[in-house]
Specification:
The complex is a heterodimer of chains A (about 300) and B (about 475). Chain A contains eight helices and no strands. In chain B, β16 and β17 form a beta hairpin. By secondary structure, chain B is of the alpha+beta class. In chain B, α2 runs antiparallel to α4. The longest helix of chain B has 30 residues. Chain B has four domains: about 90 residues; about 110 residues, Sirohaem synthase, central domain (Double Stranded RNA Binding Domain, 2-Layer Sandwich); about 120 residues, no CATH class; about 100 residues, no CATH class. In chain B, strands 4, 5, 6, 7, 8, 9, 10, 11 and 18 form a nine-stranded antiparallel sheet that branches. The chains are: A mainly alpha (about 300), B alpha+beta (about 475). At the A-B interface, α6 and α7 of A face α2, β7, β10, β18 and α8 of B. The structure holds protoporphyrin IX containing FE. Protoporphyrin IX containing FE sits at the interface of chains B and A.
């Protein structure tokens, strides 16, 4: 590829590098909120995340504008870097909505780190190219844009269910220990401040249904795109198959909730395995197995 | 069906139905499908035997072959797992459908007072109004909340029933039906469809499709001609922005259709789809170069085209000869110019200029470095415009009679999921009974999902009802 094909160190990548630090600060605030739980600290945590989110949004818009100005005109969802930035953005967005709906900031300590890690990965991950690049013809498709947006919003919802499941298991484990020890009153740990098991289970379930609906849409739009680009809506390539594996796991989750004996802890485990499959679908397939999706 | 007192049918058929409609089987199958599917993403699929032998050795290959892991998604055991899942869905749906159907066709509109008291959401209070005044007030509040209702006079008391979102009850069935539809579409495509590719040189035609397995072919009942092929690059780069073939469908010797196809924009003819997949160059020796020629003394640039090895006049007594063309110029040993590939990655042309037959000089023209190598002996400057070699277009051909069914299934699935997840079946009952000169009001509510949201809206409704039925005239 010729030199002129890339544009280095654009405004958006600079903004993103600031956002990484803002999110790091937000993570620190959300984690410190666990033991102290003062109103001020909670406000600072949310405020910091919100600030980062606004700049993050601006960075994504800036990148789209840069691409349009270069005459390539594509939505900024087309390579690993761009998808990672969008993944992080989706987590922040869904988490902010969740916090606003449930009025509970404790969950932040388990979810916001993912927004930070995803974004930090863009600057330390191996072989991630941050340049704005023109698109090869196969990627010039509106189906692809719909595919990326639905998949990554879905992944973000699964990240939240993962956070809720981890909290659920910690709380359920501690609860058991306490009953074992009987009346001997322990010093109150942060576990006491975690939301109720019932609330955690509900957050887990609600995020899985949103994630499942979006993943289903993501797989369908992806198939539609493949059908327009290659004439085959399903070819069992590793990435497709892994997205189906993820889909099977969350379908198992949904049915497990209807089965007595599978509720609670077991569904929490399924949700954790499901998120591992999400991460593998997204990154593992690219790093370990190669396939059609070599770009993202 | 014969049922024992704990509601389970103990006969063989009953047990079989019980087994196949069990959710435990569903969870088991879904997890098993997920786990086994991993194998096919780690082991290469549909590769030739020697690839496996090279990677896993002879005995490894025997194991892979025995378990059919070299084409596992089409192996009988994987298809059997899918088949079991489908049976599971069908049996379960047939088992559950009557119940959800009853919710739609025979809603529990007028339950006994005692049953009314069993619903999770309920409220009971006395109203100073008589039955008819109280029921008018109740109806008003329902109307104001946009809940349409049915009412019934029942021996001096008044009853009201309202429901919303009853469609939710068939959401799961629609979702399950969609899974069956998609699998059905996949089977139809697998049996009656094919996939392959075709390469056609510009100006030539073909009706042979080489199938995916590279061994079989399909002969189309018409032929396809590639009238022209063209690649456009992003300016200043060797990266293709768009490639397109102009194709004609020829039946007998009549051209019935001519259409340009691009990546993501296929041509469909008689159920067969033609996708732009790849391209390549047959020969650059038979290509044509276009240059912009500008007199150094001043004047407008003029475009001239010249075939490789050929000559063209650029003014009355000056000729230009294209001595050599290098689509991907590199310097080889002894600084010999040579082309690394047939792709237009770094196009360069070597020109020779003569005036009245007399040699003036040679000049290089580079597509990506327009400002270097201007030979002072030549009174013209040259700029690269384009080069067109003789190319072929690579088409992907597919016929899939199941694809429409698959998309129908996909749409059903999306609808099914929306109906299941985001609509809840909410019901309200009101009973207004006479109590001396006044009345007693019982309100009950029920939802099958999203209880928290329903609870608060129910509380709000009850507050409004209470306010309206306790104030006002006696
Ligand atoms: C890939 C296959 C399947 C998909 C995508 C699927 C999808 C779904 C979904 C989305 C729900 C709603 C879950 C919720 O409300 O949280 C559901 C519920 C259910 N599914 Fe499946 N399902 C599948 C296979 C099966 C099979 C094989 C059975 C056979 C037993 C089954 C039985 C049920 C039952 C009994 C429910 C609960 C229904 C209710 O709400 O009353 N599903 N399924």
């Amino acid at each position: 590829m010729g030199e002129a094909a890339v544009v280095h160190a654009t405004l958006d990548t600079k903004l993103v590098s600031y956002v990484i630090f803002v999110y790091l600060a937000a993570v620190v605030f959300y984690i410190s909120y666990l033991p102290y739980r003062t109103k001020t600290l909670g406000r600072i945590a949310t405020g910091t995340l919100l600030l980062g989110f606004v700049v993050h949004t601006a960075a994504i818009i800036a990148r789209a504008v840069i691409s349009y100005k270069l005459g390539w005109g594509h939505a900024p969802f087309t390579n690993l870097y761009e998808s990672m930035v969008f993944f992080s953005w989706s987590i922040a967005l869904l988490y902010l909505i969740l916090e606003w709906k449930y009025k509970n900031k404790v969950i932040g300590a388990f979810v916001v780190p993912w927004a930070f890690l995803a974004l930090a990965y863009t600057s330390i991950g191996p072989g991630i190219r941050t340049e704005v690049e023109p698109l090869i013809p196969a990627l010039q498709s509106n189906w692809l844009i719909a595919h990326v947006i639905t998949c990554f919003l879905g992944y973000a919802a699964f990240a939240i269910s993962f956070g809720a499941s981890v909290m659920y298991l910690i709380k359920a484990r501690k609860g058991e220990k306490k009953t074992e020890k009987g009346k001997k009153r322990e010093k109150e740990g942060f576990v006491d401040y975690l939301p109720d098991l019932k609330v955690l289970d509900e957050i887990n379930y609600k995020s899985v249904i949103i994630g499942f609906a979006l993943l289903t849409l993501g797989i369908i739009t992806g198939s539609a795109w493949a059908n327009y680009a290659w004439g085959s809506y399903w070819s069992w390539d590793p990435k497709e198959t892994w997205s189906l594996i993820t889909w099977f796991i969350y379908a198992a989750f949904l049915h497990a909730r209807y089965t007595r004996g599978w509720q609670g802890k077991r569904t929490a485990y399924i949700s954790i395995v499901g998120f591992a499959a999400v991460i593998f679908t997204y990154l593992g397939v690219n790093l370990i197995i190669s396939g059609l999706h070599s770009y993202a | 069906m014969k049922r024992t007192n704990n509601g389970k049918d103990r006969s063989f058929v009953g047990r079989l139905v019980g087994f196949f409609s069990s959710l435990k089987l569903t969870i088991f199958l879904l997890i098993l499908l997920a786990v086994t599917s991993i194998a096919g993403t780690v082991i290469q699929q549909q590769a030739p035997p020697q690839d496996y032998i090279k990677e896993y050795g002879e005995s490894g290959y025997r194991i892979i072959k025995a378990l059919m892991l070299n084409d596992m998604y089409h192996s009988w055991w994987f298809l059997a797992l899918l088949g079991l899942l489908i049976i599971n869905i069908v049996v379960c749906s047939l088992d559950k459908l009557p119940r959800s159907w009853r919710f739609l066709t025979h809603p529990d509109k007028w339950p006994d007072k005692s049953r009314l008291n069993q619903y999770a959401q309920k409220a009971k209070w006395k109203s100073p109004l008589g039955v008819s005044a109280a029921s008018t007030a109740v109806k008003e509040v329902f109307r104001e909340h946009g809940i349409s209702y049915e009412e019934k006079e029942d021996g001096g008391s008044f009853r009201l029933f309202a429901q919303k979102g009853q469609i939710n009850r068939i959401g799961v069935t629609v979702t399950h039906l969609s899974v069956i539809t998609i699998v059905l579409g996949g089977i139809i495509g697998g049996i009656w469809g094919f996939q392959g590719n075709m390469t056609i040189i510009e100006g030539h035609s073909s009706s042979n499709v080489i199938l995916r397995d590279m061994q079989h072919r399909v002969v189309l009942p018409f032929s396809v001609r590639c009238d022209s092929f063209e690649v456009n690059y992003y300016p200043g780069t060797g990266m293709p922005k768009e490639y397109k073939s102009v194709l004609s469908i020829v039946e007998g010797n009549r051209t019935v259709l001519t259409r340009a196809i691009r990546v993501n924009h296929p041509l469909i003819y008689k159920g067969i789809r033609f996708y732009q997949a790849s391209y390549g160059t047959i020969s650059n020796e038979r290509g044509v170069l276009t240059l912009a020629v500008t007199p150094k003394a001043g004047g407008e640039p003029k475009e001239v085209s010249v075939p490789v090895g050929g000559e063209v006049k650029i003014d009355n007594n000056t000729t230009l000869k294209l001595v050599g063309f290098y689509p991907d110029l590199v310097l080889g040993e002894n600084n010999q110019p040579m082309s690394r590939s047939d792709e237009l990655r770094n196009p360069a042309a070597l020109l020779e200029i003569r005036r009245n037959g007399e040699f003036l000089g040679r000049s290089w023209v580079f597509a990506f470095h327009p400002n270097i190598h201007s030979n002072p002996d030549i009174p013209y400057s040259f700029r690269y415009v384009r080069f067109k070699g003789l190319q072929y277009t690579g088409l992907q051909i597919s016929r899939d009679p199941g694809v429409g069914i698959v998309w129908t299934g996909c749409i059903l699935m999306i609808l099914g999921l929306i109906i299941t997840f985001f609509i809840s079946h909410r019901r309200w009952w009101v009973l207004v009974e006479p109590l001396k000169e006044r009345s007693e009001i019982i309100v009950a509510g029920s939802t099958n999902r999203n209880r928290a949201a329903f609870e608060s809206s129910f509380d709000e409704l009850v507050t409004a009802l209470k306010e309206r039925t306790t104030k006002g005239e006696r």
